């Protein structure tokens, strides 16, 4: 039974020690609405190109409790659907305990359940992603003058 396909031999099999590269970049993104999807695919691909990493992994992480990172299609209707689904699951006016001290429990909840990071394979110097998988920062409690997105590329 074939479980997978090896695309290239691990270097430890041939005795060579690969040079590990670690590239770290932080984006600052201004958001314009309370909730919105900001397409950062171009910035992430640019960072991977700058990193010089041919094969490895790319982490895209938003260091925020009220934002998230997703990979999906950049189609306006779907982007609205995603925001609508967040609003249905986590309504702003829900009876959330956190709203007693802050007014953004819905944003925290959506961030917690969706996740603040995504990891992509990097192969031959390019991110591996589906044709309909653009990378988005999800603003859940905007607008903000600056949302940070950390991109870390690790590999050889
Ligand atoms: Zn809060």
Primary descriptors:
156 residues; alpha+beta; Jelly Rolls; five-stranded antiparallel beta sheet; three-stranded antiparallel beta sheet; binds zinc ion
Q: Tell me, what is the CATH class?
A: Mainly Beta
The assigned structural class equals alpha+beta
Mean pLDDT: 93
Helix content: 10-25%
The H-level CATH homologous superfamily, spelled out, is YjbQ-like
Indicate the overall shape.
elongated
CATH level-two architecture:
Sandwich
Kindly summarize this structure in a few lines.
The chain has 156 residues and is α+β, with helices and mostly antiparallel strands. The chain has helices spanning 41-51, 76-89, 105-114; strands at 21-29, 36-39, 56-61, 67-72, 117-123, 126-127, 134-139, 147-155.
Q: Mind explaining what this structure looks like?
A:
With 156 residues, the chain is of the alpha+beta class. The chain has a single domain, classed as Jelly Rolls, CATH 2.60.120.460. It is built from three helices and eight strands. The chain has a five-stranded antiparallel sheet, with helices on one face. A three-stranded antiparallel sheet has the order 2-7-4, sandwiched between helices. A hairpin with a 2-residue loop joins strand 5 and strand 6. The longest helix has 14 residues. It is elongated, with a radius of gyration of 18 Å. The two termini are 30 Å apart. The site of zinc ion (ZN) has 4 residues, from loops.
């Amino acid at each position: 039974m074939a479980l997978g396909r090896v695309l290239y031999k691990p270097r430890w099999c041939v005795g060579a020690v690969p040079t590990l590269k670690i590239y770290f970049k932080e984006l600052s993104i201004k958001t314009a609405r309370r909730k919105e999807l900001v397409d950062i695919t171009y910035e992430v691909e640019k960072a991977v190109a700058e990193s010089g990493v041919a094969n490895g992994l790319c982490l895209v992480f938003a260091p925020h409790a009220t934002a998230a990172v997703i990979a999906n299609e950049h189609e306006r209707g779907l982007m609205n659907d995603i925001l609508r689904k967040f609003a249905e699951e986590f309504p702003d006016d829900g009876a959330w305990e956190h709203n007693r001290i802050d007014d953004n429990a819905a944003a925290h909840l959506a961030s917690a359940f969706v996740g603040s990071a995504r990891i992509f394979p990097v192969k031959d110097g390019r991110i591996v992603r589906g044709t309909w998988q653009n990378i988005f920062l999800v603003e859940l409690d905007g607008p903000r003058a600056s949302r940070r997105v950390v991109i870390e590329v690790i590999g050889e």
